[in-house]
Automatic annotation (TrEMBL):
Membrane topology: Single-pass membrane protein
GO CC annotation, single: mitochondrial outer membrane
Places the protein is found: Mitochondrion outer membrane
Family: Belongs to the eutherian X-chromosome-specific Armcx family.
Protein name as it appears in the record: Armadillo repeat-containing domain-containing protein
Organism: Mauremys mutica (yellowpond turtle)
Listed Pfam families: Arm_2 (PF04826)
ARM repeats: 122-159
Limits of the Armadillo repeat-containing domain: 77-295
Length: 341
């Protein structure tokens, strides 16, 4: 009981930890994932999901608070403190305690030293078990903790075992919910390298459905994943064969710039992959409304929309449009066998 009281006291410090976390966030995020929006269309993946700030304003554990002096910063939580937190998380059934323990672990995971400590304490599996929790808020906090922990390459090797589960849960989660966004953020970080893309292949139709049905927050997060996947030539045929009837509707001057720019990066990556594809890919391989048919089969409609975007006020958007038009002009006749409808 004494250890549980100490761990509960640590959880109560989550709110205070946030101030220190905010001071270090930009430095850590810059070192780990780069500045948001800075990724190129082709050389490298889209920006990672980044660290997730967590604030705990609840005091449900006040009756358990220990008199023990607690660290004022999540960076000062040593292995002893983190082990007690993980022990508390593993053996309590109280969802409010679970949620606050995950918040504190998430804050501490903003620091690279703690990312290593938590892994060595088998904390990734303890946190990962919370993904099967029936309480959406607990699952969301667990995903946020894993998201911060996934900024560590060695941690990704262990977190990969949850990718298939998260992909399935995205489709089942309420549309545009915080839970769904947390799931997409984790996949964004896990898709920065090509190592785990093959595990997300079956979720591509779901991603494109969310791109069509989701709100702007969801669309942006989905596009981060899609841009990462499209940067991998091995994923090109999987992406081309998926249905995305509303994809071209994103090519509009009125669309949110963050959405438009990422949609263009997605297309530019696919075109670049096609240019380097060995052999000829034909229109007959793809049904109507697939990504390939929309981008290549209806070239007139596609080109008209792209030409209109050349008048966009943003320089990055115009540069991406010019790149795509150049790709299409240089490669359509020589690389593709396309039957125009």
């Amino acid at each position: 009981m004494g250890e549980a009281r100490v761990a509960a006291g640590l959880v109560l410090g989550a709110g205070a930890c946030y101030c220190v976390y905010r001071l270090t966030r930009s430095r850590r995020a810059g070192a780990a994932a780069g500045t948001e929006g800075a990724a190129s269309a082709r050389h490298g993946s889209a920006p990672a999901g980044g660290l997730v700030p967590q604030v705990s304003g609840l005091s449900v554990l006040s009756s358990l608070q220990s008199d023990t002096d607690l660290p004022k910063s999540p960076s000062n939580l040593d292995a002893h403190h983190l082990q007690k937190l993980l022990h508390l998380l593993e053996f309590t059934d109280d969802p409010l305690i679970q949620e606050q323990a995950l918040v504190t672990l998430s804050n501490s995971a903003a620091f690279s030293v703690n990312q290593d400590i938590i892994r060595k304490l088998d904390g990734l599996s303890v946190i990962g078990k919370m993904l099967s929790n029936s309480i959406p808020k607990v699952k969301e906090k667990a995903l946020n903790a894993l998201n911060n922990l996934s900024m560590n390459v060695e941690n990704q090797e262990e977190i990969k075992v949850y990718i298939l589960q998260v992909c399935k849960e995205i489709e089942l989660s309420p549309l545009n919910s915080d839970l769904q966004l947390a799931e997409l953020r984790l996949l964004t970080n896990m898709s920065v390298t090509n190592d785990y893309h093959h595990m997300m292949t079956n979720a591509i139709p779901c991603f494109l459905h969310l791109l069509s049905e989701g709100n702007e927050r969801t669309q942006i997060q989905v596009l981060k994943v899609l841009v990462n996947l499209s940067a991998n030539p091995a994923m090109t045929r999987h992406l081309f064969s998926a249905q995305a009837p509303s994809l071209l509707s994103l090519f509009d001057n009125c669309i949110n710039k963050e959405i438009l720019l990422r949609a263009l990066m997605f297309v530019a990556n696919l075109n670049e992959n096609m240019k380097n594809e060995e052999g000829i890919i034909t229109q007959d391989q793809y049904s109507e409304d697939t990504v390939f048919s929309l981008l290549c089969g209806h070239s007139t409609q596609n080109t008209k929309k792209l030409v209109c975007l050349l008048h966009h006020h943003d320089t990055e958007v115009k540069e991406q449009v010019a790149k795509i038009i150049t790709q299409l002009r240089g490669d359509t006749k020589t690389r593709y066998s396309v039957k125009l409808q």
